[in-house]
Amino acid sequence: MSFLKAEGMRGGYGNDDILNGCTVEADKGEIAVIVGPNGAGKSTAMKAVFGMLALREGSVTLDGRDLTKLKPTERVAEGMSFVPQVRNVFPTLTVEENLEMGAFLRRDDISGTMEEVYGLFPILKEKRRQPAGELSGGQRQQVAVGRALMTKPTVLMLDEPTAGVSPIVMDELFDRIIEIARTGIAVLMVEQNAKQALEIATRGYVLQHGTNAYTDTGEALLANPEVRRTFLGG
Amino acid sequence: MDGLLNALVVLANFALVPGIAYGSQLALGALGVTLVFGVLRFSNFAHGETMSFGAMIAIFVTWILQANGVSIDPLPTALLALPVAILVTVGVVLLTDRFVYRFYRHKRSDQVIFIIVSIGVMFVMAGLIRFLIGPNDQIFTDGERFLISARDFRDLTGLREGLAIKTTQVITVVAAVVCCVLLFLFLTRTRTGKSMRAYADNEDLATLSGIDAGRVVLIAWTLSATLAVIAGTLYGLDKSYKPFVFQEILLPIFAAAIVGGLGSPVGAIVGGYLIAFAEVLLTYAYKRFLGHMLPDAWMPDGLAQLLGTEYKFAVAFVILVITLLIRPAGIFNRRSG
Amino acid sequence: MRTVLPFVIFFLLLVLVGVLQSWSLAFSIMNLCLVSAVMALGVNMQWGYAGLVNFGVMGFSALGGLAVVLVSAPPVPEAWAVGGPGVLFAVLIAIATAALAIAARRIFAERVARIVATGVVVAVGIWAVADVLEPATDAIEAVDPSFTGFLGGLGLPVVLAWIVGGLLAAGAAFLIGKIALGLRADYLAIATLGVSEIIVAVMMNEDWLSRGVKNVVGLPRPVPYEVGLREADWFQSLAATLPIGAVELSSLIVKGCYVGLFTLFLAVILWLAERALASPWGRMMRAVRDNETAAEAMGKDVKRLHLLVFVIGSGVIGLAGAMLVTLDGQFTPGTYQPLRFTFLIWVMVIVGGSGNNWGATLGAFLIWFAWVEAEPIGGMVIDVATSWLGDASPVRQHLMSNAAQMRHVVMGVVLLLVLRFAPRGIIPETDRT
């Protein structure tokens, strides 16, 4: 049984279900990537895992504990952390204050975690007195990920972290995500840049109409001619 | 040289010193508006009445203290009454939040609804104030009137013009500086203060990070009410207390908050002084000032006043409109309006 | 049913006032209810139809009042002789300044240059106007200051002044709307509040125009005078048959005439407003209110629609302001306060039912009634509540003398209760789609 397991999720906004029995899992140290066409329910699945969307059916478990009924903030306390796609930093707060606010729920000393984040993203240490709103897009994404890491999560969830950044920045960010996973964190990520994301994925989910169309390792999905033709543009 | 010095003293006496005091009062008022806006996202039209209410409580307590012979001469007794007034007003404002605003917050109502709700609160408070203390003037200042009187200044410097500095003006400026420093230390140095700024920046992300919205709102109201009481009492000490004045002063306060950028504390302070000095300098009659500077032959016939004092709030308004047209987000706002 | 019943209750209350207090008072209340209803209809067009927050009701109302002075007050020829040309010249300069400012904005494409050029033109224009205006107004204000000291009006019939009042307010609204509409709701609210304060400040301080705080009294009436009535034969024979005194009867007849005239105006405006609301234009207006982005995407010129409804609504408020001053027979700039002239009207609209003309009318009736009756009732309540203190108690005397202020509390509480428990008002907006 996987460390994070979201099974048979059904639900949506209003009467229409967007998720129709979708399942995603991630183990410690793994990068699980959800890809799929627009409107397939990728982001919705992510929100459902984090509790921002009430499920009609299905369950979310973390290390065997059932989190299905918990609110997002309670899931944060359980070890989940989420990086939204947009509006994911506090623009008028400095980089350092952003990280502090990420650790708001912690009552212990956070300086060690902050150093780890600075180790991962050295540029942030340099800019730690600057308001996050004044940084470049890629740097802001780093602040967002850093903020999420401040709770010392066991699961890091990223909603399209590379949306709107240049290819170089994207590669850089993926490298960092691999590093994060290596520290034993389970990473769950929704990505628009399917090919590049699947290259670093230990697990890949191709979602369509709110259900799993293909589930395999990233490598296998990239090699699957059907997936290539339908979802990766040849 | 002597002429220039005299001219500067006249200007300081009639424009700069009153301007600094008035600016401090506006800055404190605008800070209260801007804090509530930052967290609750609406312009609180009842803020003028909150200032008035706080000043009224301070007056009542002052009267009780005076009747019992308590005094902190040379300082005005009202300073002693301030903590009580703050406690009472904060209590009233928090009850208002609990029984009025909270409902709309949970419903996530549009800001227009909040504005209209604040009109209702304004009516209730205005009525209570006029009922309890009456609609007339109240003078409640006591203690030493001047830090330095015009005559002392003349004797001291040998100049022809005097510079009078009222105790209340000094207290106003000192109080404003202390309040601003404390507020900024709170906002930038404490966990709670930072969480408040974070919440104002990005409500959803703040909630996601585990910042409790209810607590932030509570603190915003508490700070806003505290500043309002201090601003209102100082204004009453400096001029005199009239309930209706606090409706008129709402416009320059809003102007100050908006010019600086709604939601930005630094902006509120800068805006307050900007509006105050613009008002004072544009409505000041420069005749005596110029009298020391120019030869008689060049003297203007009139008062050399750019705008009558009765139109002083038109200055605030024009600055407000220009801001809204040219830079609606205000001077100190990094986010777009 | 939901529309008729509240009106029936209101009229029953009014009859009660007539029986218990006096019929003269009941008629007075009715007259102000009618005027308030016209004002509330104006606000309802802006807020109820279009969602525009106009907190400048006081200013438009005062402009309507000023129109009565300018149109109907007897002219002061001496004042015109000494200062008329100067004032007219100043007006011309002001118009020229405005034209130049607009031209400057067209000529300079670059933003900073445009702002600077406009600023310079406006500053020079203001200086020139002040320079020409000041000697003229000084001369005017020196003409018999205790009786006139102002230009006076044109001496025309007062009902004409109502129309002019509407137009004057509409014109001002056009200028304000050009600048302020399109701002966020709270900015528009603050901007309109500020404009209204300035309009009233001008009227309080420009004595040559409005006599300022010295007030303009003795404005002509559209209805007969009591003294004249009492001399008429038919009146004397009527008075002989009725059990009330001649003075009271004449006052009742005059007030009754006002009721008739105001009802006529209210009816016409209400009819037009209802027609407009039901028309395709009204539907479009509400569509814009409910979803501005979608309406814009559908190619509706939202800005133009907003400007139009802002101008019309303000015009209606101006008309009501003129009616009010006519009813009072005097123009008293010092009495314009935002609580009474702006926010009370808002309470009327919200309580009655924003978006519904009958609701706004009802709200005006009920709220004005409550505003007036809160005074004696508040007095009684305080009297009872403080009676244990004994008549000599200074606290009791103080509170008794301020009892009338409780009406503000009542208004606030009513507004908050309605917003909370019946946010659509007593007569809610009906879906006409």
From TrEMBL, chain A:
Domain ABC transporter, residue spans: 4-234
Keyword Nucleotide-binding recorded: yes
Any single biological process term in GO: L-amino acid transport
Domain of life: Bacteria
Keyword Transferase (UniProt): no
Family: Belongs to the ABC transporter superfamily.
Lineage: Bacteria, Pseudomonadati, Pseudomonadota, Alphaproteobacteria, Hyphomicrobiales
Pfam families assigned: ABC_tran
Gene Ontology terms for molecular function: ATP binding; ATP hydrolysis activity; branched-chain amino acid transmembrane transporter activity
Name under which the protein is recorded: ABC transporter ATP-binding protein
Keywords: Amino-acid transport, ATP-binding, Nucleotide-binding, Transport
TrEMBL record, chain B:
Organism: Acuticoccus mangrovi
Compartmental location: Cell membrane
Phylogenetic classification of the source organism: Bacteria, Pseudomonadati, Pseudomonadota, Alphaproteobacteria, Hyphomicrobiales
Gene Ontology annotations of biological process type: D-alanine transmembrane transport; L-alanine transport; L-isoleucine import across plasma membrane
Coiled-coil regions listed: none
Family from the record: Belongs to the binding-protein-dependent transport system permease family. LivHM subfamily.
Pfam families, sorted: BPD_transp_2
Domain of life: Bacteria
Protein name: Branched-chain amino acid ABC transporter permease
Major location (coarse): membrane
UniProtKB/TrEMBL annotation, chain C:
InterPro entries, alphabetized: ABC_transp_permease, LivM-like
Domain of life of the organism encoding this protein: Bacteria
Keyword Membrane: yes
Molecular function, one GO term: branched-chain amino acid transmembrane transporter activity
The organism of origin for this protein: Acuticoccus mangrovi
Transmembrane regions listed in the UniProt entry: 52-73, 79-100, 112-130, 150-175, 187-204, 252-273, 305-325, 345-371, 409-427
Segment forming the signal sequence: none
Keywords, ordered alphabetically: Cell membrane, Membrane, Transmembrane, Transmembrane helix
One cellular-component annotation, GO: plasma membrane
Pfam family, one: BPD_transp_2
Protein name (record): Branched-chain amino acid ABC transporter permease
Keyword Transmembrane attached: yes
Annotated membrane topology: Multi-pass membrane protein
Localization in the cell: Cell membrane
